[in-house]
Amino acid sequence: MYRLAFxxxxxxxxxxxxRGGGRQRATAQQQAxxxxxxxxxxxxxxxxxxxxxxxxxxxxxxxxxxxxxxxxAASGVPGAAAxxxxxxxxxxNVLLHGDGGQSFFDFPNQNVQAxxxxxALLAPDxxxxxxxxxxxxxxxxxxxxxxxxxxxxxxxxxLVAFDANNVKFTGVSGGSLLMSGFFIPAQxxxxxxxxxxxxCGAMPPQVDFQNQAAVMxxxxxHYQSTQSELQLLQGSIPQAITTYEQAAAxxxxxxxxxxxxxxxxxxxxxxxxxxxxxxxVSGVQTMLTSYSNVVQGGNGVVTGLGAPSDGNVLRGVVxxxxxxxxxxxxxxxxxEEMVVKRWTExxxxxxDILVEEEGVAMLACDRTKCN
Length: 371
Fold this sequence. Notes:
Order of helices and strands: EHHEEEEHEHEHEHEHHEHHEH
């Protein structure tokens, strides 16, 4: 069921089917296939493994950033020295990007933080939408949430040593919708003592909640938004806050206990994901740079938040469910405002490597041919 494809995605794209000799605009997934995989170095000197795994018949491209000696020999990372397995000493922060895949390629959680390695997963969807569909309608949410869970529990132990009891998660925009709508209710039961940071997006559970009382009794949740959030999300984020707060109360938690586990902030004046008041990319990076301060027992201070925020984001959800927004773009058809994929700009100029608009298959390729 699980198979790694350590291969050049440039070769993969070149081997994609062609029709009629004409060339159509490539999908985001096909453009992503033009970005090479391999091993590189993170900003803090850790090693980054960028590869693709076949999980439940879905192609899950991933990045894992950790010290070289935490990788296994099977990873192919130089300096790998770990035996692997889920009994390691380092925690994990798994990031699900927003619509279009921008944060996967930026990899804002690549630096080790609070003894926690960074992992980013790329959505197995033509548009690079976690959960497929668009807007709040995530038609493939169940399958994508299952694939994320299975990747962490089954594939990662083959590649890197980590502590299975210390796996945390981060969502960005559409990734936050998958986390809150599908992953938390259906899959969080597999990750004890976990935490999730839901950046610029959230919605109530869309599927039945598994082991709700046990999950909500320990799950650390933080919702981060801005004053000018998209109107599409101005309704769904408060709805998610209220629903998860009620789930914790139903599990027997008091208001003080809920506020210790569930926090929310939308004080920055920026737009969608612009937590620094300036830009999507730099805003997301701002939150991830202070990740441990927010959901791993830190002081709650995020350095670089936009005005008028005082930088401290730890406000308990009880009594703060109805976030106050001052603006935000109205929803358009398909919620195009959520899509950010600046990483494709240079690729779109390279007409010689555009491929037809067809699905990307999992092939065994080297840099010159596909088998």
